[in-house]
Amino acid sequence: MEIWINPACSKCRSAISLLDAEGADYTVRRYLEDVPSEDEIRAVLDRLGLEPWDITRTQEAEAKELGLKEWARDADARQRWIAALAGHPRLIQRPIITADDGTALVARSEEAVRDALAHSKS
């Protein structure tokens, strides 16, 4: 299992604490430093079953500068959104956990982290 985190994020720290308390085997990816490529973002979106605008932090200053709220949210605009996330990783919602069974989820609650744990048990 891998977890994409921003160490300054309280929800990320809470998720890590819960994973540690449960003795989970996981890898941390500090995605602001180890920025995911467009292909990696596409793969995570496929695993999440979401579109790029679903995992975009539209309240961030960078989102406002880019004018993301006005961008189309359709198949034709999908690549533009993915490029924005790769170019501005701060816009990626966090934490994202990729489970061992091929699923992924945005783990902003204890329940979501526990769900990821359930998907990573053999």
UniProtKB/TrEMBL annotation:
Transmembrane segments: none annotated. The keyword ATP-binding does not apply. Keywords: Oxidoreductase. One of its GO terms (molecular function) is arsenate reductase (glutaredoxin) activity. Pfam families: ArsC. InterPro entries: Arsenate_reductase, Arsenate_reductase-like, Thioredoxin-like_sf. Belongs to the ArsC family. This is Arsenate reductase. It comes from Streptomyces fodineus.
